[in-house]
Amino acid sequence: MKLRLKDIALELQVEERFINELARIGKAHYPNEYGGFLIGYYSDDKKILTITDTILPKKYNATPSLFMRDNIGVKQHFKNFYKEKPKKYYVGEWHTHPNNKAIPSITDIKAINSIRNDKDVAILNPVLLIIGYTDNHTEIGFYVLIKDKIYKYEN
Amino acid sequence: MDKNKHLESVIKTHQIAKEEQLLNKHRDKSKDVKESLEKEYGSNIYSPFNSGSYAKNTAINTKFDFDMIAPFKKNAFGSNGTLKDMYNNVYDFLYEKYKDEANVIKQKVSIGIEFFRDEEGDIVKIDVVPGRELNQDKYPDDENLNLYVYYKYGNYDAGSERIKTNVKAQINNIKDRATNEKDSIRKIIRLLKVWKGTKLNYPTKSFLLELITIKAFDNNDITGSLWDKLEAVMEYIRDEVTKENFTLKDPGNSSNDLIDTLTTSERQNFSNDMDNIINRIEDNDENIKTYFPENEKFIEEDNDDTYGDKGAGLFSIPPKNERFG
Ligand SMILES: [Zn+2]
Fold first, then answer.
1. Model ipTM?
2. Shortest CB distance from B310 goes to which of A69, A89, A122?
C-alpha cells in the first residue's frame, strides 16, 4: 500500500502482507507490547520510503504499556541488509499497543526524537509504526519525524 | 559569482579536519596493518610508516590515500631474494590476513588494502609500499629503498626494479614547503586534487600534482587572489607539461623523474585539460563549480521535501536502548 503525508510530498510504500505479519508477531506477545526495527530504503530522489523488512530484538523488556528493546546481538543483521541490492537500512521502529489506539504516546515521541539525535543514526526522518489492537480490531499508524514535528501518513 | 569565495569554500568543505571520524578510521586500520607487518616480519622489517597525503599535509577529505612504506632488510627474503619475491611475499601475507574484510589488490608499486564499506558507509584504503634497503643494514643511514614495479607505470616497465627513492626526504620537502607557503601552494595543491577527484582514474599521481605546483611557484611570480594563483599554476602546467625537456625531479631521488610516470599522450591530455578548464571558466564563472566542486557532504541542507540523512551515508546501527510506551 501507498501512504502519503498531507502537506509534504513524501510517500511511504509497504506491503499489506508485511504489516499483517508484524501484527501477528506482535499479538503473540499479548498482553504485553512488542516490536522491532524497520528496514527499508529511499528512492533515488528521496521522495519515497519503501519498508521491506523487520529485525526483531534479541533482548527486550515489555509490559502491557511499555516496550524496551536493546540493539545487542542484531548488529550483523543491519550489515547484511546493507549488502543487499538495493541497499537496505534502518529507517525506524515498530511496536504494538495492546488494547489501545495506534497513537504515539509521550514516551514514543521522546523515543523518535532520541533516535534522530543519536550519533550513530544516519537518517534524519525516522519512521514509527504503531499497531494498536483489541480482540476484534487492528489499526495501524505510520508516523515520521520531520524537523521537530511528527507527521502521520494517510491513505 | 565570486570565484575566490567559491574556491575558499571548496577548500573548507574538503578540509580534512571535518572528517575527523574518517581519519580516525584510517589511523586505526593503518595501525593494525603496521602491527601485522611487524609481527609477521619481525627483525626483517624496519618500522613501517605513513607517507600518504595526510602525512604530506596536503590531503583532501574526499579520498584519503594512505601510503604505508614497509622498509625491508636487504636479505629479508633470502640472500638471493628478488624485489619480486618481496612484493609477492607481502601480497600473499596481506591477502591472507585481510581477505575477509578487504579487497587486497596488486597495484603499480604498492599493495592496496581496500576495506569493505563499514557501518557508516565509509571505505578505508591503505596502500602498502614494500621497499628494500640497498645494502644490508644501511637503511637507517641512507633511507634509500628499492621498490618493485608490479605493472607498467608510465615509462617504467613491468617487473622492473629501478625505482629507488628516499621517501622520507620526499615527505619532508613537501611538508616544509607546504607549511611555509600554506596560503598558496597548499591551497592550490588541494584544489588540483579536488579536480583530480572529479575524474575517474586520472593518471597523474597526487605526488606529481604536488611537485608540479611547487615547480610552478618556483619558476614564476605567482601572486594575486586564490583564483589568480590557481589560474597561473594551471597555465604553467598547460604550457610546460608537454615540453620534451620538462622534468619533475623527485626531491627524494633526483634520478627519479616523476614526469616519466606519464606517457606522451597523457601529458598532452593533462595540458589540454588545463587549457579547457581555463577557457570554460573564462566563458562563464559558474563553470568553476564543475571543475572544483564543493564537498557536498558539508554543505548544510535544510530540506523538508525529501527524506534526509546526516551526510555520512545511510547505514545506521539503531541506538542501544530505546523505550516505547
Ligand atoms: Zn507506543
1. 0.95
2. A122
